[in-house]
Amino acid sequence: MRGFVGLVPGLLRLQRLGLRLFVLVWRSGVHVRSVRWHVWTTADLARQRGGESCGDCGGLVVSRAKNILDVTVTVTVLAVCVVILNEAWQARHMDTVAAAAPAGAPAGPRVGDHVPALAGLSLAASPQTLVVALQSGCHFCSESMAFYRTLQQTRHRSVRLVVVMPDTAATAQKYMQDNGLAPDAIVTADLAELQVTGTPTLLLANAAGVIEQIWRGKLPPEREKTVLAAISGP
Question: Of the four, 75, 136, 159, 215, which is 20 to 30 A from 230 by CA?
């Protein structure tokens, strides 16, 4: 349902583009018909006077008008595709964020908030801690594992990597092993205690526990770069 709602703006844009395309085609059609009428009249007069006609020139004019119309239609179709793909991506991303959120749940942590206290989660141990909220069975989490392994390898030595999962300790440990991820700590807790409403979610917090940055859902390459930059150190 959320995906359909996310597509509504794209469909409205598509409707407006369709109306513009209809007007454009109608106007172009009138123009082409008027050009063809003009060419026929010139050729007819030329035949009546026994002179040479400009039929080839008229054909070029009509061909040029047709090419302009074809290019316009092609560009419009491409623009519609871009709008639909963009809206579909936004809808998919929002579904990812809210997948685990129960009805009436809070919007989740915000920049400037303090990370809730969890048993086994120590933020004062390092200048920065990247808290990664995951859960087994979340395919967006699994699809992001290659990126998380990159984070693990490229992070600054002052940044700790802590994974929080709602699964049992044994399940969480196996999930890390199966995906080749070795965080500094694995904390098992209900994600509601962390105020996280969907997985995956990344929280970058300082030693005082204040959230400095947040990333939600499976990230596109541009957003992945912002995470890498944030944990690369001073």
Answer: 136
Instruction: Give the CA distances from residue 87 to residues 81, 140, 141, 177, in Å, rounded to whole numbers and listed in that order.
Output: 10, 19, 22, 36
CATH superfamily of domain region 128-230: Glutaredoxin (3.40.30.10)
The pair of three-digit structure tokens given for residue 77, joined into one six-digit string: 């179709």
- Residues 65-92 have pLDDT tens digits of 555 556 565 656 565 555 455 555 444 4
At residue 123, does pLDDT exceed 80? Answer: yes
β-pair type (159-165, 211-216): unpaired
Q: Are 151 and 134 in contact (CB under 8 A)?
A: no
Q: How far apart, in whole angstroms, are the C-alpha atoms of residue 85 and residue 83?
A: 6
Q: What are the distances in angstroms from CA 59 to CA 32, 40, 53, 106?
A: 11, 10, 12, 66
How do residues 193-227 score in pLDDT, each as one tens digit?
999 989 999 999 999 999 999 999 999 999 999 99
DSSP per-residue letters across 174-188? HHHHHTT---SEEEE
Supply the pTM of this predicted model. Answer: 0.57
Cα gap 4→20, rounded to integer Å:
24
Closest Cα to residue 202, out of 153, 159, 157, 170? Answer: 159
